[in-house]
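Q: Sequence in, structure out?
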Amino acid sequence: AAAFVTRLLRAAGGIGEEQLRRFRERLQEELREHYKHHWFPLVPSKGSGYRCIRINHQMDPLVGKAAGVIGLSHERLFQLLPNELTLWVDPFEVSYRIGEDGSICVLYESPQPGGKAPKALESRSSCKEEWRTGRSSPSKNYNMMTVSN
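A: Exactly. Output:
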């Protein structure tokens, strides 16, 4: 998860490699500490909401803290990162979505104990393109109905 956010910052440009390294290391530390008592390998989905990293009109506090170490403000982060980004960090899997209607893409997956094979990864190329461009899936069309008295 930390490497992914760092890659997004690198792709946006304007941040030196040393700063990016320090950001990634600090974000890894923040995640490790934050998840310390909320990591359940035997029940990977337990606590998943707590482990969700979210940028959506507000900066995720863990990302904000790590960025502060290298002097990046929340305002600058909002310019560099996708407007809507969700990362789910679970035992055996890290996935993300850019945009509310974007595809959920798996960044990391490992076999679970007991020989359970990881599920097939779908849409890798579209997910790869999505994070590079910062685009989300096209928005859905909704029919609106007006009600009057």
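Residues 5 and 24 are 8 Å apart (CA to CA).
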